[in-house]
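Q: May I have one protein plus its fold?
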Amino acid sequence: LAHKTTYDESVRAPFLALSGEIEREFGALHVFRPNRDVRFAKDKSPYKTAAAAVTESEGGAAFYVQISSEGLFVGSGYYHLAPDQLERYRAAVADPKTGAKLATAVAGLRKQRYTVDARESLQRAPRGFQPDHPRVDLLRMKGMHVGKVFGAPRWLHTPRALERIVQTWRDAAPANRWLDKHVGPSTIAPPEPD
C-alpha cells in the first residue's frame, strides 16, 4: 500500500493506455490485480512480480501481455482447453486435412521465431491415439499459445512496444483462426457458486 501511487501511475496507467490503443482491434484489456492469492501457496509473498493484462476474441482466443523484471512477453492462443474443447481440438488435429493445416500454421510461426507451446502437455500420446501419429506433439498439448519473449530492449519504453505487441497478436492469427474454427469456446456451463 505504501507504493500504491507508484503502481497506479507507473504500472496500471500504462496498461490502461495500451488498452485504449488496442481496444478497437482486439478488445479492452483486463489488467490483472497485483496481489496474489496466497491461501494455498507455499510462497506467502503478497504481491506478484510481474504485471499482466489480457483480452479475448469473440472466438475464444486470448491476447496476453506481461511485463516483469525480465522484460516483455506477448502471447496469444487458447491457454487451457476445457474437456469439450480438448476433445474437439484432438479430433481436428488427428484429422488429416484439418490437422495438416494447423501443423503448417505452427511451422510458419516457429520459422518466424515464435514459440508455440502449451501450459500443460502430456508425456505420451493421449489415449486412443498412436504414439507415432505424425502430429503427436500437437495431440499431447492441452492448450496452445503463440508467444515471444522480447526481454528489455531500448524500445520497450517507446511507441515501438505497441507495434511489437500488436504485430505478435496479428502474427498469431493463423493458429487462432484455426482454433476458433475447430475448437471455439467451451460449451460446459461454469460451476454454480456455493
